[in-house]
Amino acid sequence: MGTELRLKRPWHARLMIFSDLDGTLLDPVTYSWQEATPALQACIDKDIPIIMNSSKTGAEMAHLARQMGLSWPYIVENGGGICFPKGGPFQCIEDGTSGRSLDHVAIGMNYERLSEALLRIAAETGACIRGFSQMSPEDIMALTGLDRKGAERAMQRQYDEPFLIEHALPDALERIRKAAGRLGLQVTPGGRFYHLHGAFDKGNAVRWFADRMKPFGNIRLVGIGDSENDIPMLEEVDIPVWVAPPEKPEPAVKGLIKSNKATFSGPEAWNQVVLLLIRERYSR
């Protein structure tokens, strides 16, 4: 069954921003977006959608959206699903006679199958792998710096199994990737964890939006990220932005831009680049 996007109110934007969270819009240590506040407020003032696109769960992103004052859709668990908050400007309508309004579009694979597959991969490769499904809230708190409620939200997974490789041999990741591939799965490095998921990524979810945004006019899609799992998203947008620290290698993405301040990364770079894009696009 197909879907289409509809607007609940008048909306005229020139940009739509897809943004990673940890290490991009959020500080990788404190999880603060304080340094990006001026650009966030400018986006709110100009009705520019900020579509969060992260490995985080729906529970985590709903909490963040409320804190940030964002009502736009968000993409969860590395492209595994798209959530449409109640009261948000966009409505996702199912094609067909029902015309149902959907609050969630599933793209990814069932989480229980992923956690079972990770155990199978560990047994096949002999690698010492520990996934979220094997961790307690206390484990996740220690690994991430989250408080207990934050850790519990991070554990409410549907489409993506984060994991660690402990005591890894040099070829462990390659063996794990090959074993995952034989099961029709993918392994993607994130900021803190590796992620096991189905044959989808952040770019697939951006493409879902791009296909349905065409009736709304000439809107430039911006993608902002800092990690390998952001590259598929950056490859799908008109304006790809890299906000990783300078010591991190840049991906070979056509048209990639970054902060012109060599020391800027994360939310500081996010703020500078987004304000620049708004000035350029809205001064014409």
UniProtKB/TrEMBL annotation:
InterPro entries: HAD-like_sf (IPR036412), HAD-SF-IIB-MPGP (IPR006381), HAD-SF_hydro_IIB (IPR006379), HAD_sf (IPR023214). Signal peptide: none annotated. One of its GO terms (biological process) is mannosylglycerate biosynthetic process. It comes from the Bacteria. One of its GO terms (molecular function) is mannosyl-3-phosphoglycerate phosphatase activity. One of its GO terms (cellular component) is cytosol. Keywords: Hydrolase, Magnesium, Metal-binding. The keyword Calcium does not apply. It holds the Pfam family Hydrolase_3. This is HAD-IIB family hydrolase. It comes from Desulfatirhabdium butyrativorans.
